[in-house]
Amino acid sequence: MAASDVPAGGMSDAMMSNNSSLNLPTFVLTGIPGVEEKNAWMAFLLFLLCVSVLLGNSLLLFVIKTDRSLHEPMYIFLSILACSDLGLSMSTFPTMLSVYWFDSKDIRFNACITQMFFIHAFQVLESGILVAMALDRLVAIREPLRYRTLFPNTVVAKIGVAAAVRCISVCFPVPFLIKRLRFCRSRRLSHTYCLHPDVMKLACADIEVNVLYGLILLILTLGFDVAIILASYVVILKTVLAIASRQGRFKALNTCVSHVCAILIFYVPMIGVSLLHRYGKHLSPLVHRLMANIYTVVPPLLNPIVYSMKTQQIRQRMYNVFPKKQHRILW
Predict the structure, then answer these.
(1) Is residue 321 part of a domain?
(2) Which residues form the G-protein coupled receptors family 1 profile domain (predicted)?
């Protein structure tokens, strides 16, 4: 067949197909289905949540930094946790607001994998810091007289650096594993941000390596961290039950309440989203969207509230931040 006999449409389609395989794809983010007419209200609510997260975590960091009496391992770990929450929020809120506020749902490939890297990295960092805080509580309760010797600030700094190096190392291959894939199917994502399991499902290539690495990553980071936290609290409970005084037992357990709340706030939504991705395909898309939003919004929002309410030192320092005249007005 001569070139002149080829239909113009056929040539155009072939060229578009070749170009689409060579050019980097653009993905389409998805909001909550069925509430498109209320996107403005959703955007306003997300904006308020974003401001609350920024103010809460920034205030927590300010109080810990300015008060030298809080320069102890538990509060230093808490400040790293607040930084991680801020990083996670800044990685997700821009695209969430762009979808609901400006109805801008397209995200370029490089922006998508960059966002993906930071979301997963900050999650691994937060998980590592929760482990460090569990070990801190274990040493404080089991060896109270040797606590400052076993947990000096130099050790805390090394643990923080190790947690940061771990999160970067394990998440560094993820963008490259996605970049090697070819996308020729629907490019509509399930959420208002990019996640590795969500993006890889859209590929029209073999994703066994991605699935295997994701499983290994989940086991060696989150699975390993949960095991250490559980083991730490088994030892803590044994130590607390061995205390003769009922008041002493209550006081020891009370120092762990905030940390236990932070663990539940972080791991329950994460495990829920992971289970939905693997076993909840038959469920309504609304369930997936709501869990995904809870997964990224709730931990950064609630952690400062929990620690300010349950930790007397932080609550008192936050109270002292505001002028006394405002206190009288509030009362």
Answers:
(1) no
(2) 56-307
Report if residue 74 sits inside a domain: yes
Total-model pTM? 0.85
Residue 232: which pLDDT band, with cuts at 50, 70 and 90? Answer: very high
Residue 37 has pLDDT above 90, yes or no: no
- Structure tokens, 107: 């995200």
The parent domain of residue 219 ranges over: 26-311
Question: Mean pLDDT for the chain?
Answer: 83
The pairs formed by 135-139 with CB atoms below 8 angstroms and a separation of 24 or more are: 135/228, 135/232, 136/73, 136/74, 136/77, 137/74, 137/232, 137/236, 137/255, 137/256, 137/259, 138/232, 138/235, 138/236
Query: Which comes out higher in pLDDT, residue 317 or 8?
Result: 317
152, part of any domain: yes
For the stretch 129-160, pLDDT in tens is 999 999 999 999 998 888 888 888 889 999 99
Whole-angstrom distance, CA of residue 148 vs CA of residue 72: 9
User: What's the number of CA atoms in the CB half-sphere (13 Å) around residue 128?
Assistant: 23
Q: Alpha helix locations (H) across 143-256?
A: 147-150, 153-171, 173-179, 196-200, 208-217, 224-241, 246-254
Residue 285 near residue 33 (C-beta atoms within 8 A): yes
Count of structural domains within the chain: 1
Is 25 in a helix, a strand, or coil?
coil
